[in-house]
Amino acid sequence: RYYRVPLNKLVITYDEIDLPFGAVRIRASGGSGGHNGMKSIIEHLGPDFPRIRIGIGRPTGRMDPAAYVLQNFSKEEREVVGGIVDRTVDAIELFLREGINSAMNMYNQIPEEE
After folding, report:
1. For residues 70-105, b (16+ Cβ closer than 10 Å) or e, as one string?
2. pLDDT tens digits, residue range 18-39?
3. β partners of residue 27
4. Widest pairwise Cα distance in the chain
5. Angle of the 100-107 helix axis to the 75-98 helix axis, nearest 10
6. Which helix (H) or strand (E) holds 16?
7. Could you write out the DSSP letters of every residue in 48-111?
8. Residue 112 half-sphere exposure, CB side, CA atoms within 13 Å?
9. Angle 92-56-62 (CA atoms, 0-180°, nearest 5)?
């Protein structure tokens, strides 16, 4: 409210254990999906704002999800996380430039296997 930013110009970007590591998904609105940070934001803003989820994958074995999301990236993950951040920034820029539908069409695609 202080900055008077309309919700359609706000993009919440956050980690998502229910997406594979490195996947980027854009949505115009929705629920929290059990994500505590999103629950808090929705309580303050309501559910109608765009969001970008960045996949971090699920913990292996019986690891506590809260501990998993707070741990450091592995060596292999550190080698690719910069590219994931770059791709996310590109998605945000496209969203701001051309709108959410263009960004969703471009970035919600399932990447082809290399």
Report:
1. eeeeeeeeeeebeebeeebeebbebbeeeebeebbe
2. 999 999 999 999 998 888 899 9
3. 51
4. 46
5. 150
6. strand 12-16
7. -S-EEEEE--PPSTT--HHHHHHSPPPHHHHHHHHHHHHHHHHHHHHHHHH-HHHHHHHHSSPP
8. 1
9. 160
* 33's tokens: 């999906």
Question: Which residue carries 């706000």 as its tokens?
Answer: 10
| Cα–Cα distance for residue pair 11/65, rounded to 1 Å | 24
Read off the amino acid at residue 81.
Answer: V
Backbone dihedral angles phi then psi of residue 36, each to the nearest 5 degrees: -60, -40
Q: Which residues contact 102 (CB under 8 A, 6 or more apart)?
A: 94, 95
pLDDT digits (tens, 9 = 90+) for 69-87: 899 999 999 999 999 999 9
Euclidean distance between CA atoms 73 and 78, whole angstroms: 6
